[in-house]
Amino acid sequence: MAWTRFGKKKDMPGGLWIKCESCGAMLFRKEFEQKKRVCGTCGYHFTLPARERIEMTADAGSFEELWPDLVAQDVLGFNDRVPYGEKLTQTKAKTGEADAIVVGTAAVKGVPCALGVMNFQFLGGSMGMVVGEKIALLCELAAKRRLPVVLFACSGGARMHEGAVSLMQMAKTCGALQQLNRAGCVSISVMTHPTTGGVTASFASVCDLLLAEPGALIGFAGPRVIATTIKKELPKGFQRSEFLLEKGQIDRIVGRSAMRDELGRLLAYATGRDAVAAFKPLPVAADDEAAVAAAAAAAAAAAATAEKPRKKGKVKS
Amino acid sequence: MTDAAAKPVVQDGLAFERPLIDLQTKIAELQKLSAGSHLELSGEIELLEERLRRQTAEVYAQLSPWERVNVARHADRPMTSDYIQLMLDDFVELHGDRVFGDDRAIVTGLASMGPHRFLLVGHRKGKTVKDRLACNFGCAHPEGYRKALQKMRLAEKMRLPIVSFINTPGAYPGIGAEERGQAGAIARNILDMFEIKVPIVALVIGEGGSGGALGIGVGDRVGMLENSYYSVISPEGCAAILWKSGDKAPEAADALKLTSKDLQRLGLVDKVIEEPLGGAHRDPKGAVERVKLQLGAWLEELTKLSVEELLAQRYRKFRGMGTPLGSPLPGA
Q: Which of A32, A82, A221, B152 is within CB 3.0–4.6 Å of B173 for a Cys-Cys bond?
């Protein structure tokens, strides 16, 4: 056991360092957090807590959370060593979240939208009645207010503890997206590591625009299930974002550092705004809400008159 | 053979059938005996038959969820192909998704049943070994779901209602399936079924395996045969994840509340169709007859609704499934 303790020790020193889950490199925590939890060595995108995601996506101070208090009912009386109701209470105490998604209204680079972000920390981001209900409510609200919808998926799939009720959330969320379609509003899904099972097989795959973070595991069946079914080793890069892009399943792969700009740009196209102006990176002053809001307003207003050729926009495409 | 002997008893989900089968064999033997000789055995036979009826009723009244799962998977249980043969007056199979191929795991075609004409969509499991392999044991690929959607669009154009027979362990988990977008294909079906402007009736006739079932399962009326199951994950899969052991499948089946009665209690299905005594596999014709009656009633009911009413009802139905505490569900 000596070697395992040594291995642990290497991870530990005061939480200053963190080990990359993908390449094993030791990352200095402060720098790692500055890089939005992306490995500086291999570019691996770590799973993000929902609140952090919202902070780095929405304009400062623009996010207004909706329906934070919805609570799942233990309709099955599910008990796998711990009763489901108890498990929910424990997870809530541990994570500070009521369930696996946070939703609300926000502005991204000045464009108002409805925003939903799944939280993997809460029971593997599994979709049960609360996730389904919040997405449905969000889409219905967006349809009413004519807002575009952005959904960040991060989930192991449907929540087994709610049985077939969780399965039906796939239908509920898709039905709600269809209401949004009827209202003519655009939806954007961002699939992040990992997005599998019932979430991939429902709302996350049928938004109008499908984005993915680099290297994210995205699929219907988990790789282990597939490997045991076909009794073969899976090809390298199987079910990763790059694989999905190559197979024509998604529109774009967007790195975390560019995500906010990209969303602003796409939302601008989706809502008839000037995409060039929206895509121009704002001065970064996350601590200065007024400055960011002013810059966003200025960017939106200066839309028509913007003459400066966009530099970043050309590199991308 | 040692394998079978080594298996724990609990894994044999059909063990409860053994005394019934023994009785049946005994009755058959007596019948043969009495036919081949002058022995008068009708009294004994009647007695045994009465005992068989009683015992079958008793056994089937108290099946555990795991035992029901095994009845749902029974090889002699009527499948989509049996319904096509026994229930329909005419069937024109339509093949192919127009993009990639023709998935044998889902059958689609134009059907006539008495006064009703509709599009039939159903999972196909196959009867012979060769058939089963060709159908991947009822596990569809993306092209199967895309075929179903393409034909449902056709039904919409022809103003024919849609009848969907669900019987799958789940959508196929494989490399090709993922490459061609298994998740996206299922999601697209679910999404579009909320917009299809003709009545849709879905019936779980055996296994309702997760997303692979729901991929053709968004209906204005959803029913289940008494001994079918409908679940978010197979009991084996759930046991492997939560109990870390596939042997705990019976416990998982219990916990998942996946029987027809459970689904009805949870408000997820509209109707449970009772099966003939001892399960549909004992009397396929009887089971088919009951299904036929129910389908006819539903189709008659639904064709009276306007398109707007139909779609609004369809959304409301699924929108109301699993409402958390504190939800401001509009119109609830």
A: A221
- The band of A299, judged by pLDDT with boundaries at 50, 70 and 90, is low
Are A30 and A145 within one domain?
A: no
Burial of residue A24 (number of CB atoms within 10 Å: 0-12, 13-18, 19+): exposed
Does residue A152 share a domain with residue A120?
A: yes
Residues A118 and A262 occupy one common structural domain: yes
Q: Is A133 touching B (CB cutoff 8 A)?
A: yes
- pTM, 2 dp: 0.89
Per-residue pLDDT tens for B179-214? Answer: 999 999 999 999 999 999 999 999 999 999 999 999
B94-115 pLDDT, tens digit per residue, is 999 999 999 999 999 999 999 9
Q: Which residue has the tokens 């009294």?
A: B43
A40 touches chain B (CB under 8 A): no
B107: which 2 tokens?
């059958």
Are both A31 and A75 inside the same structural domain?
no
Domain housing A32: 17-45
Partner residue facing A165 (CB), from B171, B218, B322? B322
Answer whether B329 sits within 8 Å of A133, measured CB to CB.
yes
Report ipTM for this prediction: 0.93
Cα–Cα distance, B328 to B310 (Å, whole number): 24
B322 within 8 A of A134, measured Cβ to Cβ:
no
Q: Closest partner residue to A167 among B181, B232, B237, by Cβ?
A: B232
- Could you tell me the CATH number of the domain that includes residue A134? 3.90.226.10
- Residue B19, chain A, CB below 8 Å: the answer is no
Residue A286 located in a structural domain: no
Whether A156 is in a domain gets the answer: yes
Cβ-nearest to B322 among A160, A162, A206: A162
Q: How far is A99 from chain B (nearest CA, A)?
A: 11
Say how many CA atoms lie within 13 Å of B217 toward its Cβ.
36
Which of B321, B325, B329 to mutate to probe the A interface, most A CBs <10 Å?
Answer: B321
Same domain, A115 and A24: no
Q: Which amino acid is at B89?
A: D
Structural domain boundaries of chain B?
Answer: 14-62, 70-326
Residues of A in contact with B182 (CB under 8 A): 201, 219-221
**Is-contact A262 A254, C-beta < 8 A?**
yes
The answer, for B200 touching chain A at a CB cutoff of 8 Å, is no
Closest CA to A171 of B319, B278, B299: B319
- Give contacts of B 244-283 with A, CB under 8 A: 255-258, 262-263, 266, 268
CATH topology of domain B70-326: 2-enoyl-CoA Hydratase; Chain A, domain 1 (3.90.226)
Nearest CA in chain A to B183: A201
CA A216 to chain centre: 11
